[in-house]
């Protein structure tokens, strides 16, 4: 067993070893705390994004319901829409539950039978309508603004006020919502759903879909099949 004097001599001769021993534990604790704080921040941010996506999807359901009701304002239009889609569209739980292509309602709104586009003050409705019309195109916020004859800044301000989202978030939300409907109700293949909502690469589509819904398209279809069975 070394004498106390020998230990003091070793500390003097090797100060680096003493310092490393003194600082090792506090350094490890600090690193662990930083990692923990970062993990909590990331988890809270992801929870916020998830909640925001759910809120935006609920708002989209309300907007789709308004568009369908607009398409039925003209006499005889609802019956025509049902005969074209082969089924009815219903408003349930405060939102629109598609029972066929929403494009039927959109075509009626655009035609002479319907009441026309929503007013210029309803940027949320007009933007949603435009994205659905151009669903199979890789839209950008600038494309959306140009299609509505608005400046990008005006579009951003209008959507922020009405929906609390950006143009890019709205475009993605509409595409993911319709892709989910196609996969579950129309039982489309993943490649078909990807092309229908403007994705040339089905693998890119699958990654975006999984990030958005926290489930891959194929897994969602498989879960639906098991629940039906």
Structure report:
The chain is mainly alpha-helical and 229 residues long. It has a domain of 61 residues. Helix content is 72%, strand content 3%. It is built from eleven helices and two strands; from the N terminus they run H-H-H-E-E-H-H-H-H-H-H-H-H. The protein has a two-stranded antiparallel ribbon. Helix 2 packs across helix 4. About 12% of the residues have low confidence.
Mean of residue pLDDT values = 74
Low-confidence stretches: 74-101
Strand order of the largest sheet: 1-2
User: What would you call the shape?
Assistant: globular
How many helical elements? 11
Our estimate of the beta-strand percent is under 5%
Q: Can you give the helix content as a percent range? A: over 70%
Quaternary structure classification: single chain
Strand-pairing-aware structural class: mainly alpha
Q: How would you spell out the order of helices and strands?
A: HHHEEHHHHHHHH
Distance between the first and last residues' Cα: 75 Å
The description of the largest β-sheet is: 2 strands, antiparallel
Give the tally of β-strands: 2
How much is the radius of gyration in Å? 28 Å
Task: Tell me the layout of helices and strands.
Blueprint (H helix, E strand, L loop, with lengths): L3 H10 L1 H57 L5 H9 L4 E3 L2 E3 L5 H8 L12 H11 L7 H7 L4 H11 L4 H20 L3 H7 L5 H12 L3 H12 L1
Antiparallel strand pairs: 1-2
Helix pairs in contact: 1-2, 2-4, 2-5, 2-8, 5-8, 8-9
């Amino acid at each position: 067993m070394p004498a106390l004097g020998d230990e003091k001599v070793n500390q003097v001769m090797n100060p680096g070893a003493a310092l490393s021993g003194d600082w090792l534990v506090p350094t490890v604790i600090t690193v662990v705390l930083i990692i923990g704080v970062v993990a909590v921040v990331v988890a809270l941010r992801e929870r916020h994004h998830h909640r925001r996506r759910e809120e935006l999807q609920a708002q989209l359901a309300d907007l789709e319901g308004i568009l369908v009701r607009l398409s039925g304002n003209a006499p005889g239009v609802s019956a025509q829409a049902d005969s074209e889609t082969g089924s009815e569209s219903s408003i349930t739980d405060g939102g629109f539950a598609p029972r066929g292509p929403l494009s039927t309602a959109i075509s009626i709104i655009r035609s002479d039978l319907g009441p026309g586009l929503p007013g210029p003050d309803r940027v949320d409705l007009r933007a949603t309508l435009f994205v659905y019309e151009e669903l199979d195109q890789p839209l950008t916020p600038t494309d959306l603004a140009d299609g509505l004859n608005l400046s990008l800044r005006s579009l951003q301000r209008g959507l922020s006020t009405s929906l609390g989202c950006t143009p890019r978030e709205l475009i993605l939300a509409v595409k993911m919502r319709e892709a989910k409907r196609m996969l579950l109700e129309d039982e489309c293949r993943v490649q078909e759903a990807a092309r229908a909502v403007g994705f040339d690469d089905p693998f890119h589509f699958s990654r975006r879909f999984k990030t958005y819904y926290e489930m891959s398209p194929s897994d969602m279809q498989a879960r639906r099949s098991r629940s039906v069975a």
